[in-house]
């Protein structure tokens, strides 16, 4: 059974995003896109779930299981990371948030159980426990989002507490944005935000801006056949100085001696074209990749390293011309 959100507002057209039931839209996707870009949009991120990691060995254990430096996090700080196997392929994309006495892992809900089980099987004598949290995740985006939430200046992925709700800075839409981790005891929280002037926004508007920003989503643009560098996550999810973790040798070797054989890129399309996800990408008469995500006039997809340069002309089956562009979000990555 799909996860059913408790955040759905009146007027929502309901559908699935990954394994979760959520609002696809509220009747006017264009108006919802404008709210995200120009005002304050509130999105039910039902496809994201939370795992709480506790125990005195939690930091050391997770640091040895993921690509980023969890040991460096102080309470209130966070980072993005990948859990990878010994071949460097992704088991999960996670956002780690350090709070007092726990680490909170935000994970795509479709992968939450598999990711937890993959981590748990490496627990031997460690004092580490994993608990699926009942907290729900909502997103607040737009140029007025920070002031609206009274979040103050936050570094990316860092967190402040507002009552029982955790507010964390994020970047996936290319506008100012925050994820709210809302405990089950506060199901009315998104409604309170909307009552103070936020606009309800569905998955379709959120997904459109995500694709335009070029930020990958688990199960669509990245999965168990992908290295985190191929998905473009290197600037924010990989530390090359943190020391050993499972899969580290492969990832370090790619960094030191070569480059990924393929890369996720943005694809500029003519007019209002919307190709099919999974469509083949070709160049010079040869297939060089495939499309992963699509919105009007733009797509994401993987191409071979020889075609990743900005301005490269490619063709998307059955004959749609496209131009390769860099992932926009990476231009602002530190």
Order of H and E elements: EEEHEEHEEEHEEHEEEHEHHHEEEEEE
Please work out how many helical segments DSSP would assign.
8
CATH architecture of the largest domain: 2-Layer Sandwich
Mean pLDDT: 94
Secondary structure: number of strands: 20
Query: Structural class from helices and strands?
Result: alpha+beta
Round the Cα radius of gyration to an integer and report it.
20 Å
The biggest beta sheet, please? 6 strands, mixed
User: Which fold does the CATH topology of the largest domain refer to?
Assistant: Gyrase A, domain 2
Poorly predicted ranges: none
The CA-CA distance between the termini, in Å, is 40 Å
Shape: globular
User: What is the total number of structural domains?
Assistant: 2
CATH superfamily of the largest domain: Probable tRNA modification gtpase trme, domain 1
Q: Roughly what fraction of the amino acids lie in strands?
A: 25-35%
The CATH class of the largest domain is identified as: Alpha Beta
Identify the strand order in the major beta sheet. 11-12-13-10-4-14
Portion of residues within helices: 10-25%
Describe this structure in words.
The chain has helices spanning 29-38, 58-63, 112-120, 145-149, 189-195, 203-213, 234-237, 248-257, and strands spanning 3-4, 13-17, 20-25, 41-44, 48-54, 78-84, 90-99, 102-108, 129-132, 136-141, 159-162, 165-170, 177-182, 199-201, 262-268, 280-283, 286-295, 298-304, 313-316, 320-325. Helix 1 packs across helix 6 (203-213). It is α+β, with helices and mostly antiparallel strands and 334 residues long. The chain has two domains: 1-260, 2-Layer Sandwich (Gyrase A, domain 2); 261-327, Beta Barrel (Elongation Factor Tu (Ef-tu), domain 3). The strands form four sheets. Strands 11-12-13-10-4-14 form a six-stranded mixed beta sheet, sandwiched between helices. A six-stranded antiparallel beta barrel has the order 15-18-17-16-19-20. A five-stranded antiparallel beta sheet has the order 6-7-8-5-9, covered by helices on one side.
């Amino acid at each position: 059974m799909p996860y059913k959100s408790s955040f759905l507002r009146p007027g929502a057209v309901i559908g699935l995003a990954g394994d979760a039931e959520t609002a696809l839209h509220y009747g006017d996707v264009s108006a919802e896109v404008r709210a995200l870009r120009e005002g304050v949009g509130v999105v039910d991120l039902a496809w994201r779930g939370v795992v709480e990691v506790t125990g005195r060995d939690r930091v050391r254990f997770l640091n040895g299981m993921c690509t980023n430096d969890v040991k460096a996090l102080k309470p209130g700080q966070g980072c993005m990371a990948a859990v990878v196997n010994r071949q460097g392929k992704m088991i999960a994309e996670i956002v780690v948030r350090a709070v007092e006495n726990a680490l909170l892992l935000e994970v795509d809900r479709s992968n939450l159980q598999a990711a937890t089980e993959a981590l748990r099987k490496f627990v031997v004598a460690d004092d580490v426990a994993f608990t699926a949290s009942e907290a729900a995740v909502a997103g607040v985006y737009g140029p007025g989002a920070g002031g609206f939430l009274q979040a103050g200046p936050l570094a990316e992925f860092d967190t402040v507490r507002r009552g029982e709700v955790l507010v964390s800075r994020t970047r996936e839409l290319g506008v100012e944005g925050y994820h709210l981790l809302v405990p089950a005891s506060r199901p009315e929280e998104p409604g309170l935000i909307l009552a103070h002037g936020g606009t309800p926004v569905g998955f379709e508007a959120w997904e459109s801006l995500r694709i335009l920003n070029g930020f990958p989503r688990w199960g669509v643009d990245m999965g168990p056949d992908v290295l985190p560098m191929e998905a473009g996550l290197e600037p924010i999810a990989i530390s090359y100085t943190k020391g050993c973790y499972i899969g580290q040798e492969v990832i370090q070797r790619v960094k030191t001696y070569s480059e990924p054989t393929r890369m996720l890129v943005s694809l500029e399309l003519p007019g209002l074209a919307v190709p099919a996800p999974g469509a083949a990408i070709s160049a010079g008469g040869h297939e060089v990749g495939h499309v992963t995500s699509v919105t009007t006039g733009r797509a994401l997809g993987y191409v071979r390293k020889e075609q990743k340069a900005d301005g490269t002309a490619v063709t998307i089956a059955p004959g749609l011309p496209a131009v390769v562009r860099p992932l926009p979000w990476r231009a602002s990555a530190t």
